[in-house]
Amino acid sequence: MECPTCHNTESSLVGSKNGHKLHRCANCSLLHVHPMPAADELLRYYQDYHKTPQYTRKLKSKQRRAKKRIWSLKRLTKGSKFLDVGCNAGFAVEAARSLGLEACGIDLDEASIKFARQQYPMGDFRKISAQDLAASAERFDIIYCCEVIEHLAEPHSFVDALYTLLNENGVLFLTTPDIAHFSVQQNLLEWTAVRPPEHLLYFSKPALTALLEAHHFRKINFRPNLKPTIKLLARKDAAAV
Ligand SMILES: [Zn+2]
Fold it and tell me: In this record, what's one Pfam family (predicted)?
């Protein structure tokens, strides 16, 4: 079996949850589901995704929290083009818009896009993948990607697209559960963030750094967090632009 991020073939079985086996890569420490669920299983799962409670719960407080984050991101770049990758119910796009940014949200889930458009009629919401958007000429100054990368079976084309979508002086803000956080090292499999097939890839800071650097992201800066979530900022490699 090959690690989905570093392609190393040595790994150890950590255990099983929800009928899925979880392996840890001996090289980059990524915890990943193997074998990955079939495409039709994932499709079935995500058809009902908008019915899950984490989807719409506390929309107002999510919007407030996103606004605080985006306000601090806005100070790190001069441009005003904001992209939320995996925009879900659209609250971060609305928060960015209220801060005067030109905000767009993308999601693969039809129901999410429909819900976001109903909830925030002024927002620009599109059902498109990051990879397909990267194939267009549109570029962004702030890319916001919260709790998305752990859902992917294959992260490389996705991270590559994030890099392409970012303007030269732009900033990427990304979050994902932190499997190496002190609060979850014991009983890792019992942790609520470990929930295959919804989450397929589980990162530590070194594993995520290796993945981002492989796609030329530089100045990777982790925000301290008492909660088990990796929060990072990354920029483009000026020399590679
Ligand atoms: Zn690996």
Answer: Methyltransf_23
